[in-house]
Amino acid sequence: MIKINYSLLLACFLLVGFSSCKKIEGPGGTSSIKGNLMGKIAQGSGTPKFEVTHVTITHANGVDGSILDNSDYFLLNTPNGGTYYYVWFENSNFPGQDPNLSGRTAIKVTYSNSESNVTIATNTEAAIQSAASADFTVSRVGDILTITNTAVGEVPDADEVNTPFLVDIATQGGGATGGASLSGDVAIADERIYIIYGEEDFYSESVRTDEDGNFQFTGLTRGDYRVYALSLDTTSATVGMTRSELSASITEKKQVVDAGQLNIIK
Questions:
Q1: Could you tell me which residues come within 8 angstroms of residue 165 by beta carbon, excluding any fewer than 6 positions away?
Q2: Hey, what domains does the chain have and what are their CATH numbers?
Q3: Number of alpha carbons in the 13 Å side-chain half-sphere of residue 50
Q4: Which tens digits make up the pLDDT trace of 10-47?
Q5: 209 CB contacts (<8 Å, ≥6 apart)?
Q6: Strands across the sheet with 223-232, in order?
Q7: 262 vs 144: CA distance, rounded Å
Q8: For residues 34 and 218, is the Cβ–Cβ distance under 8 A?
């Protein structure tokens, strides 16, 4: 005769019940968070501008097409008359071929498919600092690199070329053009917005604003979230990154939560 341990069955039932009710922030739900991005545009800034580029190092080993292939590269530039670079990637298990771009200086990064996007970002940061510290300063948050030109002036925009990375120009380089002033509040289009799930340290997803500065993250479960935008305050003498952040909580299914308005200076 088979004996049934009812106490054990009850404990398992309670464990499954409690775990299924646990609030876990992230994708897979039916709710969404929306908001709006507004900003002030620096006009005729008396402070010369350093070009600032954000590079998000996506690499998911083929998932969603974000595979980094051998010999892929992206471009980095300096103001007119300076050195132009290409950052290329060689798989440590399958040696690749240097693209050997004429008129450009190579920065090589070695990687493997087993490495995370954060590890590849860390190695890319180190490679740029080692080979081109005279032309760029580099900082990293998670898998996002912030690359700032050390010389002011207009710069041909960086380009992801054939990498799966996301390359955004956070601040266009320029020289002094007169007294500093700011525009009134305007909707900021085509700007990247990031979302953090729960108590995680780094962002988990990003979207771009539409022509009216609106953004929305969909397919979310119940829980607590933070959304933010990054910008460089070009009116500040310290030329530092600023972060505008909002918190939002989802408590019901099929709920649309308005996080409010983010504000930046461009």
A1: 55, 56, 57, 58, 74
A2: 23-42+180-265 (2.60.40.10), 48-171 (no CATH)
A3: 21
A4: 444 444 443 344 458 999 999 999 999 998 876 654 56
A5: 37, 187, 188, 189, 190, 191, 193, 215
A6: 205-208, 192-197, 223-232, 241-250
A7: 20
A8: no
Calpha distance 108→116 (Å, rounded):
18
CA dihedral 130, 136, 141, 144 (to 10 degrees): -100
Q: Which amino acid is at 173?
A: G
Distances from the Cα of 228 to the Cαs of 3, 6, 127, 195, 208, in angstroms? 57, 50, 28, 7, 12
DSSP conformation class of 25: -
- Mind listing the pLDDT tens digit for each residue in 60-94? 765 555 789 999 999 999 998 799 999 999 999 88
Q: How far is CA 181 from CA 119, 169, 202, 208, in A?
A: 41, 21, 34, 27
